[in-house]
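Would you mind writing out a protein's amino acid sequence and the numbers that encode its backbone to help me picture the idea?
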Amino acid sequence: MFFGHRSETSRRRLRQLFRVGRTSLLIGLVFLAVTVAVGDLIANAMGGQRLGEILRESLLIGGWVAMWRPLEIFLYDWWPIRAEARLCDRLSAMPVRIAHRENAKADTSR
């Protein structure tokens, strides 16, 4: 019962993590597209000057940094949660037997 509840809680956390991951991915992709477009506009407006190229590359890097969290979620963060849910599933299916000895000392906790 306890481990079944823990398993369900882990699966709920995993669903929530994937929901956050999808939202983060959408935001990250939109932000990346905007930074690439703005960077190209700035570079073209500055006519190939060094500062325009630096700004374009800086915006490109910023766009890829915005993709960090979604990639982290979909590549790494979900594995431990899934492993915990599977472990709790196995533990909840294990047979448990509690044995009580009649001749145990009176001060021993049960």
